[in-house]
């Protein structure tokens, strides 16, 4: 029998399909925490070579993330995304 994965590990693995596209544009996505009341906190961080203009809008990104997470975590209440993108200046 395979080892049981934690909810966090299942969510992290489920996000791999989105992570590939984000990485191509220079972004790293990681799961920060899963709360007891069903929230998944994620961090999206731009690498130095990130294409900020390539990033999809917040609503689309939220929908994509929730669509990946819901099959492995049906208790999902929502996704909170912290973006760490340096401002141009």
End-to-end CA span: 54 Å
Helical stretch tally: 3
Describe the strand arrangement of the main beta sheet, using strand numbers.
Answer: 1-2-3
Please tell me what the overall shape is. Answer: elongated
Major sheet details: 3 strands, mixed
**Percentage of residues in helical conformation:** 25-40%
Strand content: 25-35%
Structure overview:
Strands 1-2-3 form a 3-stranded mixed beta sheet. It is 33% helix and 26% strand. It has helices at residues 7-14, 16-24, 58-69; strands at residues 27-34, 39-46, 78-84. The N and C termini lie far apart (54 Å). By secondary structure, it is of the alpha+beta class. A hairpin with a 4-residue loop joins strand 1 (27-34) and strand 2. The chain is elongated and about 40 Å long.
Strand-helix topology:
Blueprint: H1 7-14, H2 16-24, E1 27-34, E2 39-46, H3 58-69, E3 78-84
Give descriptors for this structure.
alpha+beta
Q: Short summary of the structure?
A:
With 89 residues, the protein is of the alpha+beta class. Helices cover 33% and strands 26% of the residues.
